[in-house]
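Sequence, please.
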């Protein structure tokens, strides 16, 4: 099988250097995706006010929930195509690419329509304050129009990553981020569109990133080339993509669903807490992007090598990915915590917003090493095609712990710090169960499908 300049041979040779080459562009891609949101928060915080900033902050969990589902589904495509490539099942890999493309469009349109109907009930559940509810609804309804483009980008990026190409999705998103920032300034400063302006800019940027990857897939060579005149939906490949991707999406959604509950609790603490969380989240999520990138590296490297039948290399890829993740993550954490106030002041200069933002960063960024374990083991299990187990564990441990905490500890001591403490506690409990689940499945691992 021939590899182009952006492909990685995951089946032979050393692992650490290839995992870095795979994960770093993917981490930067994640950061770029967050820049699309950060640009909105910064623009509103600097040029409109903290209430507009809080309005967008209320949508972060909702946007994260939708994005998690899209990314999880697309991860199923990543695993299926990677396993087919590793096993040299080229015809099946072609069918999986075509199936993933059709599924991306269908899922994007479906969830766009569904989410528009759910906006009002969700805002009612969140008890969004009247001072920001109109702006929050305006932003979200406009943003939801980009769901087909977001779905298409994520699935197309997964197709590229299945062969080890993480640079092409990065380039597409970098260009889209530039478009978003320029349009934010134009729509807010020149046209005075406020929240609607930054939402419209985000929609356009998401469309740009999807179109760029679509163009690249059409002119790609080899197994991932997209043939529009031969699009098919292969039932077997569709089943595998959904079987692996849907639980992964649910796992990501669980975090976002529990964050919706926490956002409702944050809302009860006022606009300063809401604005602080919006700013801190935009900073802290960059650490998670690094951790998630190495988790996806474990998924793809395990996927290809599992398809090739090399179980020992799968295990080595898992531990190397986690070790490298810890090194890069800890470096970034030190920078963020040392310059916490300076970073937060980029979003809003209000002293109370900055004070609360610093509290959140210490509670969430400092214990990120636990997330390395969670993402690494979950990613490896998905590479083997075991996606339901980490999803169920996350659902029970993360969601359960956070629900109990909000209605017990936070209700008894309703402070911002009490609320933030639930993050490391829920991570720690989840990590323990994931370690046990990983050990269980490694002892009973079955050969990849033929």
């Amino acid at each position: 099988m021939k590899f182009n300049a952006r492909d990685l041979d995951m089946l032979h040779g050393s692992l650490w250097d290839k995992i870095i080459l795979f994960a770093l562009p993917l981490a930067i891609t994640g950061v770029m995706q967050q820049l699309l949101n950060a640009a909105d928060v910064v623009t509103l915080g600097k040029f409109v006010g903290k209430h507009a900033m809080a309005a967008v902050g209320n949508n972060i969990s909702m946007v994260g929930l939708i994005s998690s589902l899209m990314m999880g589904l697309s991860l199923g495509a990543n695993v299926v195509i990677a396993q087919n490539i590793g096993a040299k099942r080229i015809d099946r890999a072609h069918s999986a690419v075509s199936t993933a493309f059709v599924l991306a469009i269908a899922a994007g349109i479906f969830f766009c329509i569904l989410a528009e109907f759910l906006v009002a009930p969700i805002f009612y559940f969140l008890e969004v304050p009247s001072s920001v509810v109109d702006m929050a609804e305006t932003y979200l309804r406009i943003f939801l129009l980009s769901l087909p483009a977001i779905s298409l980008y994520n699935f197309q990026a997964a197709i590229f990553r299945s062969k080890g190409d993480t640079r092409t999705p990065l380039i597409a998103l970098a260009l889209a981020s530039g478009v978003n920032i320029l349009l934010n300034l134009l729509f807010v400063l020149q046209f005075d569109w406020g929240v609607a302006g930054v939402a419209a800019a985000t929609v356009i940027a998401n469309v740009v990133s999807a179109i760029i990857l679509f163009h690249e897939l059409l002119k790609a060579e080899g197994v991932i080339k997209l043939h529009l005149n031969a699009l098919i939906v292969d039932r077997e490949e569709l089943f595998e993509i959904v079987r692996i991707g849907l639980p992964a999406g649910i796992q990501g959604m669980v975090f976002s669903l529990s964050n919706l509950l926490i956002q409702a609790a944050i809302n009860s603490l006022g606009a300063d807490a809401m604005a602080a969380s919006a700013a801190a989240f935009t900073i802290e999520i960059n650490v998670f992007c690094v951790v998630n990138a190495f988790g996806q590296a474990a998924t793809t490297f395990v996927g290809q090598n599992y398809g090739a039948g090399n179980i020992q290399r799968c295990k080595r890829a898992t531990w190397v990915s986690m070790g490298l993740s810890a090194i890069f993550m800890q470096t970034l954490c030190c920078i963020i915590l040392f310059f916490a106030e300076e970073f937060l002041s980029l979003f809003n200069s209000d002293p109370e917003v900055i004070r609360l933002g610093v509290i959140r960063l210490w509670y969430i960024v400092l214990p990120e090493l636990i997330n390395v374990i969670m993402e690494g083991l979950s990613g490896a299990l998905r590479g083997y095609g075991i996606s339901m187990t980490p999803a169920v564990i996350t659902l029970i441990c993360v969601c359960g712990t956070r629900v109990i905490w909000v209605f017990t500890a936070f209700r008894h001591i309703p402070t911002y710090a009490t609320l933030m403490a639930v993050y490391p506690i829920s991570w720690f409990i989840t990590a323990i169960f994931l370690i046990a689940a990983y050990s269980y499945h490694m002892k009973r691992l079955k050969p990849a499908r033929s």
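The chain has a mean pLDDT of 87.
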